[in-house]
Amino acid sequence: MSEVIEKAVLALQERLGGGFDGTVKFVIEDEGAIMIDEDGVRAGDEEAECTLSADRETFQGIMEGDVNPTAAFMGGKLKLDGDMSTAMKLGAALS
Description:
Layout (H helix, E strand, L loop, with lengths): L2 H14 L7 E5 L3 E6 L2 E4 L6 E5 L1 H9 L4 H6 L3 E5 L1 H11 L1
Parallel strand pairs: 1-4
Antiparallel strand pairs: 1-2, 2-3, 4-5
């Protein structure tokens, strides 16, 4: 597992607390994937209701609050595959 994934898992666990009502996979190009669901946050690459994909720079910017996820999506830097409402619930939970 890459250092980027390890740090992201810890940061997301801290921000989300317990679990999340839904299943989201966040794919970070050339680094790996993170699963977020009712069991919490972990490194993994499983089926999900919603898959978000971004490069490392965009993902780190989102995590640090320097990149607005909506702007990244509209600008094509954050890709979404699956249920948009689940992605929006995750965005609300992280803010």
